[in-house]
Amino acid sequence: MADIDYLLNKQSFIEMDARERAKSLFDLNSCKELLDPFAGVMSPWLLRQNIVPQADDGVVVMKGFIEQQPAVVISVEGSFQGGSLGEVGGAKIAGALELAIEDNCNHIPTRAILLLETGGVRLQEANLGLAAIAEIHSAIVELRHYQPVIGVIAGSVGCFGGMSIAAGLCSYLIMTQEGRLGLNGPQVIEQEAGIDEYNAKDRPFIWSITGGEQRFASGLIDAYVEDDRELIKQKVIAYIQQGIPQVQRSTQSTFYLSKLFQLDTSDQILPVDVRKLYQGEQA
Protein backbone atom coordinates (compact mmCIF):
# COMPACT_ATOMS: atom_id res chain seq x y z
CA MET A 1 0.00 0.00 0.00
CA ALA A 2 2.84 2.38 0.85
CA ASP A 3 4.40 1.78 -2.59
CA ILE A 4 1.08 2.55 -4.28
CA ASP A 5 0.69 5.77 -2.27
CA TYR A 6 4.23 6.78 -3.23
CA LEU A 7 3.57 6.22 -6.93
CA LEU A 8 0.31 8.17 -6.77
CA ASN A 9 1.97 11.13 -5.06
CA LYS A 10 5.20 11.04 -7.05
CA GLN A 11 5.81 14.13 -9.18
CA SER A 12 8.41 14.14 -11.94
CA PHE A 13 11.13 16.75 -11.57
CA ILE A 14 12.22 16.29 -15.19
CA GLU A 15 8.79 17.11 -16.60
CA MET A 16 8.78 20.51 -14.90
CA ASP A 17 10.09 23.57 -16.69
CA ALA A 18 13.01 25.55 -15.26
CA ARG A 19 10.78 27.92 -13.30
CA GLU A 20 8.73 25.13 -11.74
CA ARG A 21 11.87 23.20 -10.77
CA ALA A 22 13.39 26.19 -9.03
CA LYS A 23 10.19 27.08 -7.17
CA SER A 24 9.67 23.49 -6.02
CA LEU A 25 12.83 23.60 -3.87
CA PHE A 26 11.82 26.59 -1.75
CA ASP A 27 9.70 26.79 1.37
CA LEU A 28 6.10 27.57 0.46
CA ASN A 29 5.55 31.16 -0.70
CA SER A 30 9.08 32.17 0.33
CA CYS A 31 10.73 32.94 -3.01
CA LYS A 32 10.72 35.60 -5.69
CA GLU A 33 12.20 35.60 -9.18
CA LEU A 34 14.95 38.05 -10.06
CA LEU A 35 14.93 39.53 -13.58
CA ASP A 36 11.78 37.67 -14.56
CA PRO A 37 10.46 37.66 -18.17
CA PHE A 38 8.71 41.00 -17.62
CA ALA A 39 12.15 42.61 -17.26
CA GLY A 40 12.65 41.84 -20.97
CA VAL A 41 16.26 40.75 -20.56
CA MET A 42 17.32 38.75 -23.61
CA SER A 43 20.31 38.13 -25.84
CA PRO A 44 20.89 40.88 -28.44
CA TRP A 45 22.53 38.35 -30.77
CA LEU A 46 19.75 35.85 -31.49
CA LEU A 47 17.40 38.13 -33.44
CA ARG A 48 20.26 39.11 -35.75
CA GLN A 49 20.46 35.45 -36.76
CA ASN A 50 16.67 35.06 -37.15
CA ILE A 51 16.48 33.01 -33.95
CA VAL A 52 13.47 33.70 -31.74
CA PRO A 53 14.80 34.90 -28.33
CA GLN A 54 13.29 34.33 -24.89
CA ALA A 55 12.64 37.15 -22.44
CA ASP A 56 14.59 35.54 -19.59
CA ASP A 57 17.18 34.08 -21.98
CA GLY A 58 16.56 30.58 -20.70
CA VAL A 59 17.91 31.13 -17.18
CA VAL A 60 15.64 31.46 -14.14
CA VAL A 61 17.03 32.94 -10.91
CA MET A 62 14.99 32.75 -7.70
CA LYS A 63 15.87 33.85 -4.19
CA GLY A 64 14.11 32.81 -1.01
CA PHE A 65 14.31 30.32 1.83
CA ILE A 66 14.91 26.58 2.01
CA GLU A 67 14.23 25.18 5.47
CA GLN A 68 14.05 28.82 6.61
CA GLN A 69 17.63 29.43 5.45
CA PRO A 70 18.46 31.96 2.67
CA ALA A 71 19.15 30.40 -0.72
CA VAL A 72 19.38 31.23 -4.39
CA VAL A 73 18.32 28.70 -7.01
CA ILE A 74 19.54 29.06 -10.59
CA SER A 75 17.71 26.94 -13.13
CA VAL A 76 18.59 26.52 -16.82
CA GLU A 77 15.75 25.85 -19.27
CA GLY A 78 16.94 22.93 -21.39
CA SER A 79 14.18 23.34 -23.96
CA PHE A 80 15.42 26.81 -25.00
CA GLN A 81 18.43 26.65 -27.31
CA GLY A 82 19.37 23.30 -25.76
CA GLY A 83 20.05 25.05 -22.45
CA SER A 84 23.05 26.76 -24.04
CA LEU A 85 24.48 29.82 -22.29
CA GLY A 86 25.25 33.11 -23.93
CA GLU A 87 26.19 36.55 -22.70
CA VAL A 88 22.94 37.35 -20.87
CA GLY A 89 22.14 33.97 -19.34
CA GLY A 90 25.73 33.55 -18.22
CA ALA A 91 25.76 37.02 -16.67
CA LYS A 92 22.57 36.23 -14.74
CA ILE A 93 24.13 33.09 -13.25
CA ALA A 94 27.46 34.74 -12.44
CA GLY A 95 25.70 37.80 -11.01
CA ALA A 96 23.44 35.68 -8.79
CA LEU A 97 26.44 33.75 -7.43
CA GLU A 98 28.36 36.97 -6.82
CA LEU A 99 25.40 38.41 -4.90
CA ALA A 100 25.35 35.23 -2.79
CA ILE A 101 29.05 35.80 -2.06
CA GLU A 102 28.26 39.39 -1.06
CA ASP A 103 25.48 38.12 1.23
CA ASN A 104 27.91 35.81 3.00
CA CYS A 105 30.43 38.60 3.40
CA ASN A 106 27.61 40.52 5.12
CA HIS A 107 26.87 37.54 7.42
CA ILE A 108 23.81 36.37 5.45
CA PRO A 109 24.49 32.65 4.84
CA THR A 110 23.05 32.34 1.33
CA ARG A 111 23.44 28.92 -0.31
CA ALA A 112 23.34 28.29 -4.07
CA ILE A 113 21.67 25.46 -5.97
CA LEU A 114 22.32 25.04 -9.71
CA LEU A 115 19.76 23.11 -11.77
CA LEU A 116 21.83 22.26 -14.82
CA GLU A 117 20.24 21.29 -18.14
CA THR A 118 22.74 22.67 -20.62
CA GLY A 119 24.91 21.83 -23.57
CA GLY A 120 27.40 24.50 -22.54
CA VAL A 121 28.31 27.69 -24.33
CA ARG A 122 25.94 29.04 -27.00
CA LEU A 123 27.82 28.74 -30.28
CA GLN A 124 26.15 31.87 -31.71
CA GLU A 125 27.73 33.94 -28.95
CA ALA A 126 31.10 32.18 -28.81
CA ASN A 127 33.64 34.14 -26.74
CA LEU A 128 30.94 36.14 -24.94
CA GLY A 129 29.46 32.91 -23.61
CA LEU A 130 32.87 31.50 -22.73
CA ALA A 131 33.75 34.62 -20.76
CA ALA A 132 30.47 34.35 -18.84
CA ILE A 133 31.08 30.69 -18.04
CA ALA A 134 34.58 31.53 -16.76
CA GLU A 135 32.98 34.08 -14.40
CA ILE A 136 30.56 31.37 -13.22
CA HIS A 137 33.47 29.03 -12.45
CA SER A 138 35.26 31.73 -10.48
CA ALA A 139 32.13 32.59 -8.50
CA ILE A 140 31.42 28.95 -7.58
CA VAL A 141 34.96 28.49 -6.27
CA GLU A 142 34.69 31.63 -4.15
CA LEU A 143 31.18 30.94 -2.85
CA ARG A 144 31.97 27.40 -1.73
CA HIS A 145 34.42 28.83 0.81
CA TYR A 146 31.34 30.12 2.65
CA GLN A 147 28.52 27.71 1.80
CA PRO A 148 28.03 24.46 -0.13
CA VAL A 149 27.18 24.90 -3.81
CA ILE A 150 24.83 22.10 -4.89
CA GLY A 151 24.32 20.99 -8.49
CA VAL A 152 21.37 18.95 -9.81
CA ILE A 153 21.45 17.26 -13.23
CA ALA A 154 18.08 15.63 -13.77
CA GLY A 155 17.65 15.24 -17.55
CA SER A 156 17.00 15.05 -20.38
CA VAL A 157 19.45 17.57 -21.90
CA GLY A 158 22.24 16.68 -19.48
CA CYS A 159 25.20 18.88 -18.61
CA PHE A 160 28.08 19.30 -21.06
CA GLY A 161 30.75 21.74 -22.21
CA GLY A 162 31.94 24.54 -19.96
CA MET A 163 29.00 24.04 -17.64
CA SER A 164 30.10 20.46 -16.96
CA ILE A 165 33.19 22.07 -15.44
CA ALA A 166 30.86 24.25 -13.34
CA ALA A 167 29.14 21.03 -12.21
CA GLY A 168 32.52 19.54 -11.31
CA LEU A 169 33.26 22.58 -9.15
CA CYS A 170 30.08 22.14 -7.10
CA SER A 171 30.44 20.96 -3.52
CA TYR A 172 27.82 18.27 -4.12
CA LEU A 173 26.29 16.82 -7.28
CA ILE A 174 22.92 15.06 -7.57
CA MET A 175 21.83 13.13 -10.68
CA THR A 176 18.93 10.98 -11.83
CA GLN A 177 19.05 7.97 -14.12
CA GLU A 178 17.96 10.22 -17.01
CA GLY A 179 20.67 12.83 -16.42
CA ARG A 180 24.01 12.84 -18.24
CA LEU A 181 27.30 14.52 -17.42
CA GLY A 182 30.34 14.88 -19.67
CA LEU A 183 32.80 17.44 -20.96
CA ASN A 184 31.87 16.86 -24.60
CA GLY A 185 28.43 15.91 -25.84
CA PRO A 186 27.89 12.70 -27.84
CA GLN A 187 27.39 14.50 -31.17
CA VAL A 188 30.62 16.44 -30.71
CA ILE A 189 32.62 13.30 -29.94
CA GLU A 190 31.12 11.45 -32.89
CA GLN A 191 31.87 14.39 -35.20
CA GLU A 192 35.48 14.63 -34.10
CA ALA A 193 36.38 10.98 -33.48
CA GLY A 194 33.98 9.12 -35.77
CA ILE A 195 30.98 6.90 -35.26
CA ASP A 196 33.12 3.85 -34.51
CA GLU A 197 34.50 5.66 -31.48
CA TYR A 198 31.23 7.11 -30.22
CA ASN A 199 27.84 6.46 -31.79
CA ALA A 200 25.64 9.35 -30.67
CA LYS A 201 22.48 7.44 -31.64
CA ASP A 202 23.28 4.48 -29.39
CA ARG A 203 21.32 5.71 -26.37
CA PRO A 204 21.98 2.72 -24.05
CA PHE A 205 25.71 3.09 -24.72
CA ILE A 206 25.65 6.87 -24.16
CA TRP A 207 23.84 6.54 -20.82
CA SER A 208 26.11 3.67 -19.77
CA ILE A 209 29.07 6.05 -20.13
CA THR A 210 27.72 9.45 -19.00
CA GLY A 211 24.44 8.64 -17.20
CA GLY A 212 23.68 9.22 -13.54
CA GLU A 213 24.02 5.61 -12.46
CA GLN A 214 27.48 5.30 -14.03
CA ARG A 215 28.70 8.64 -12.67
CA PHE A 216 27.57 7.66 -9.18
CA ALA A 217 29.19 4.22 -9.35
CA SER A 218 32.40 5.92 -10.50
CA GLY A 219 32.35 8.34 -7.57
CA LEU A 220 32.04 11.42 -9.77
CA ILE A 221 28.76 12.55 -8.18
CA ASP A 222 27.44 12.37 -4.64
CA ALA A 223 23.84 11.18 -5.00
CA TYR A 224 21.84 9.11 -7.49
CA VAL A 225 18.10 9.55 -7.03
CA GLU A 226 14.80 8.80 -8.72
CA ASP A 227 13.07 11.41 -10.85
CA ASP A 228 10.92 12.61 -7.99
CA ARG A 229 10.50 16.24 -6.98
CA GLU A 230 10.27 15.55 -3.25
CA LEU A 231 13.24 13.14 -3.18
CA ILE A 232 15.43 15.68 -4.99
CA LYS A 233 14.34 18.46 -2.63
CA GLN A 234 15.12 16.33 0.42
CA LYS A 235 18.55 15.47 -0.95
CA VAL A 236 19.27 19.16 -1.57
CA ILE A 237 18.22 19.95 2.01
CA ALA A 238 20.43 17.14 3.33
CA TYR A 239 23.50 18.59 1.61
CA ILE A 240 22.67 22.12 2.80
CA GLN A 241 22.56 20.79 6.36
CA GLN A 242 25.76 18.80 5.83
CA GLY A 243 27.63 21.99 5.03
CA ILE A 244 30.91 22.44 3.22
CA PRO A 245 32.61 19.09 2.49
CA GLN A 246 35.98 18.47 4.12
CA VAL A 247 37.50 17.90 0.66
CA GLN A 248 36.11 19.44 -2.52
CA ARG A 249 36.11 16.96 -5.40
CA SER A 250 37.75 19.44 -7.76
CA THR A 251 40.82 19.67 -5.50
CA GLN A 252 41.57 15.96 -5.97
CA SER A 253 43.27 16.35 -9.34
CA THR A 254 46.18 14.08 -8.40
CA PHE A 255 43.82 11.18 -7.72
CA TYR A 256 41.88 11.57 -10.97
CA LEU A 257 44.98 12.12 -13.12
CA SER A 258 46.46 8.91 -11.72
CA LYS A 259 43.38 7.06 -12.96
CA LEU A 260 43.62 8.59 -16.43
CA PHE A 261 47.26 7.56 -16.70
CA GLN A 262 46.17 3.95 -16.19
CA LEU A 263 43.89 3.98 -19.23
CA ASP A 264 44.69 1.82 -22.23
CA THR A 265 43.46 4.00 -25.11
CA SER A 266 44.22 1.37 -27.77
CA ASP A 267 40.75 -0.09 -27.22
CA GLN A 268 37.41 1.40 -26.19
CA ILE A 269 36.94 1.10 -22.47
CA LEU A 270 33.75 -0.55 -21.19
CA PRO A 271 31.51 1.09 -18.57
CA VAL A 272 32.25 -1.68 -16.06
CA ASP A 273 35.97 -1.04 -16.48
CA VAL A 274 35.46 2.67 -15.81
CA ARG A 275 33.80 1.82 -12.50
CA LYS A 276 36.63 -0.53 -11.54
CA LEU A 277 39.18 2.12 -12.40
CA TYR A 278 37.62 4.81 -10.23
CA GLN A 279 36.95 2.33 -7.43
CA GLY A 280 40.66 1.59 -7.22
CA GLU A 281 41.09 -1.38 -9.55
CA GLN A 282 43.22 -1.46 -12.70
CA ALA A 283 41.05 -1.42 -15.85
From TrEMBL:
InterPro entries: AcCoA_carboxyl_beta (IPR034733), ClpP/crotonase-like_dom_sf (IPR029045), COA_CT_N (IPR011762), Malonate_beta (IPR017556). One of its GO terms (molecular function) is carboxy-lyase activity. Gene3D superfamilies: 2-enoyl-CoA Hydratase, Chain A, domain 1 (3.90.226.10). It comes from the Bacteria. Pfam families: Carboxyl_trans. One of its GO terms (biological process) is malonyl-CoA biosynthetic process. Keywords: Metal-binding, Transferase. Residues 1-194 form the CoA carboxyltransferase N-terminal domain. PANTHER family: ACETYL-COENZYME A CARBOXYLASE CARBOXYL TRANSFERASE SUBUNIT BETA, CHLOROPLASTIC, MALONATE DECARBOXYLASE BETA SUBUNIT. This is Malonate decarboxylase, beta subunit. It comes from Acinetobacter baylyi (strain ATCC 33305 / BD413 / ADP1).
